[in-house]
Structure formats: C-alpha cells, structure tokens
Amino acid sequence: MGAYIPFIVTGLIVGSIYGLSAMGLVLTYQTSGLFNVGHGAVCAAAAFVFYELRQEHGVPWPIAAFITVAVMLRQGKLANLRNTVTATEVPMAALS
C-alpha cells in the first residue's frame, strides 16, 4: 500500500488542477458567452518562469514559487493597465 501513496497524491493534485481549469472555462463561458482559453496561456507562462528559476538558475523552490507569483501578478497588473484586447473575441453563437 505504501508504494501507491505517491501515485494517489499525484493523481489528486493533477485532478485538482484539471478541475480548477475546467471551472475557469465554465465560469468564463457562462458569464460572458465567450470561450476563452487565456488562463491556460497564463499558466504556461507561470510554469515556464518557475522552470527557468528552479532548473536553469538553481533557485530553491519556495523562493522560485514566490518570485513566479510576484512576476505573474506584475504581468497581470501591466495587462490590466493597458486595458486593450489583444485577441479577437468571437461569441460561441457566431460559430454555430
């Protein structure tokens, strides 16, 4: 049984991430009528920043996680300041 514990924990973590992503997609679509996958790009950017800090520069993971959150918050604030739409938004009703 002890050999299965890492797989159970990994499954719970990955399942939680999938569930959180799915809830974000549903929430966005239900409130705006647009199918927006922009949060996936933000997650990919955050994963890249964390990977670069952790693997390429040898920063300990708690510090790398803190820096990643700070960088992504800063990017979010900068994007919010521009207040422009960079992608074409197409309502799902227009696609059918």
Please give a structural write-up.
With 96 residues, this protein is mostly helical. The chain has helices at 5-32, 38-56, 61-82, 92-95. It folds into 2 domains: 1-35; 37-84, no CATH class. Helices cover 76% and strands 0% of the residues.
Write a brief structural summary:
This protein has 96 residues and is an all-alpha fold.
Total helices: the number is 4
Count of beta strands: 0
What is the terminal-to-terminal distance? Answer: 50 Å
Task: Provide the number of structural domains.
Answer: 2
Shape: flat
The parts where pLDDT drops under 50 for at least 5 residues are none
Estimate the mean pLDDT confidence. 83
What is the H-and-E element order?
Answer: HHHH
**Portion in helices:** over 70%
The structural class is mainly alpha
Percentage of β-strand residues: under 5%
Rg value: 17 Å
Largest sheet: none
